[in-house]
Structures are given as C-alpha cells and as structure tokens.
C-alpha cells in the first residue's frame, strides 16, 4: 500500500504494484503528479521504470548506415568494387585483397642485398635513398665497403673485396721511421725551434769568443781553453733544444694524434724507438752544425789576436764534436721526460730544471758538499766533453759525458715503460 500523506493522498509520482489499491490513479491525480518517477525514489527492492526516448528514423548509429551508392564513383582512397563483391560500410576500409596463388614456374625469392652503413633498406615501392649535397656516397665514411656478392654460394662474400690500394704497406720499423720523419719535417714548429737553437748557439759562441780575446795575457794564448770558449753558446742553446725534444712526443698527446699513430702502428715499442731514433739523428745533426760553425767563427776571431786553433791540436776535435753530442743528449733527456709526463710544459720545465736550475742551486751549497755533488750534476758532467783542460774537482771528459748520457737513458727507458703499459 502507498504511504498516505497528511491529507490522505498517496505520494505523488509513485506507481504502486499492479493489483494493489491505488494502482490506477484517477485523471485528477495524474494531472497533479507530473511526469512519472520524476524526482522520487522507488521503494527498496523495486526498480523504477525509466522512460524510453524514441529514436528518430533519420538518426543513424555511428559507423553504420545504409549501403553507399558507388555506382557513379568510389570514395577517395578506395578502389571501385568489383561485381559480386561486398560493399564496405561507411567509415570502414575496404577488405584486403586475397593473396595471389603461388606461381609454380617462378624461381626462389630474391635475397635482400646488404645495405651500406648509414642507409636503411629501401621499402617496396620506394626508391633507394640517395646522398644529398655535401654528404658522402654510400660506403664512404660510414664503414667498410659492402662485400661484392659472389657467384659461388660456398665462397665467403668478404673474400672478394677488390684489389688492395696499398699492397706494399707494412707496419714495420722502416715504415715507422718514414712516418716519424714526415711528422718532424712537416711541422712548422720544428723548423723554427731548430733554427733558433742554431742562431743562439752560434751567435753566443761568437760573442763569448770575441769577449775572451779582449783582455788576455801572453800566457793565456798558450794555456787557455779556447775550444771551450768557442762552444760557450751551448750554455743557452741547450735550453732551446729541449723544447724540440719534448714536443717531439708531447705534441701528439696534447692533440690526440697519438691514437692515430698507434692505430697505424699498433706495436708501441716500435713506434717509440722510431721516434727516439729520429729525434737523435735530427738533434745530433743540428748539434754538429752548431758546434762546427761556432768553431769556424771563433777560429776567425782568434786569428786576429795571434791565437791559432786547429782541429788537429790535441783534444780540439773531441771538444768540437762533443758539443754536438751534448745537444743531442739534451734533446733525448727532454724526449724521455716528455714520454713519462705526456705534457709539454711539464717536460720542458723539468728538463730546464735539471740542466740549468740545478746547476745554479748547487753553487749555493757549502764548499765541502759542493765539491762532491757538483761533479754529478747533469750540466757539469756533460760539459766536460768540450773542455781540453779538465780540472781535478770534475769528472774526466768521457766519464762525465757518460754520466750525463745515463740521465737521458734512464728517462728514455722509463718513458718506454710508461708508453707500453699506460693507455694513450
């Protein structure tokens, strides 16, 4: 039964179950109730009746519709239907055609050819990609060339790569020597460094020789160490030749070209000793030019003051070519330090400190210490090779030069170990 209201009337908008009193409201009540079930909840356990909205005949469900008329022209993007085929509904693509039956007379399908590096495989119906302006053609700068397909199915396709453009190229010691010589003579800094070395060594040798003959006594003409005065330009020339020795190897580390050198010559020991030999020959040639030129100029200056000097006089020849040896060993010392440090400024600073600064610092030591230490300083030991009148507190000429060369050998061996065991 319906719940009576205070006035005795049933709840507006409520439809009682069928067969119960009040299920058929009169027309007066219906006009006062408004639309059925509007704004009122149904009792528990009973689902309210929802009104149905009639669907107009003109509205169509999305994706469906009447068959389209393709008699005049097919829609854009679809082929014309064949006789007897189903017509696709509006909004749906045409069905894919059935695959063609296999041809029993056709050969095996073509195998895809390997594509060059950097270019994707062309898709069916599209042309192969072409390089644009400013870009290399396929197989140029994008990796190794694609193998030429062989007619023999059992042959390795990578065996037919065409003729070798460098049939005589070998990673030998001779090839490494040629490569290092090309580097040395093609770098502009090498030319200017060696030119400054010769200018300073020869120019200062001439100045020292000229100053030595300005105030001399009769006894000095006979007992003076005139070849050593002629070689005095080595005092500052050594500071320039160490720049050449250090940059011969540190320049490649600073620019990263050492990786290219190791790629072309994977044997590091071969590359290192080739560099060492080239630096030795170049620095020795420059040193001999400096020492003999200084001797010739100094001899001309001495002859004007009644001082005669010849290469056949005692140890004069040894002093002259000893000057070239001293410059060569100085360059090798810097080369070895450059191989250890791999830094241009660090190698040059260390070499200058050993050859020049250490010699100055030893002079400030007490006399008892200075006598025992000074003879082992690299500069004092090496410069004994250019003297014709050795002193008692210094080593003999060849002994002192051997000590000086020992410093260079130790630096080179240490540099070879570092280069062999340390990444570039």
UniProtKB/TrEMBL annotation:
Compositionally biased tracts (Pro residues): 7-19, 94-136
Record has Iron as a keyword: no
Pfam family, one: ABC2_membrane_4
Keywords: Membrane, Transmembrane, Transmembrane helix
UniProt biased composition (Low complexity): 20-37, 46-57, 83-93
Domain of life of the source: Bacteria
Protein name, as recorded: ABC transporter permease
Keyword Transmembrane helix: yes
Annotated segments matching region Disordered: 1-169
Segments passing through the bilayer: 191-213, 233-251, 272-301, 321-341, 348-369, 398-419
Stretches with biased composition (Polar residues): 151-162
PANTHER family per the UniProt record, alphabetical: INTEGRAL MEMBRANE PROTEIN-RELATED, MEMBRANE PROTEIN
Originating species: Catenulispora yoronensis
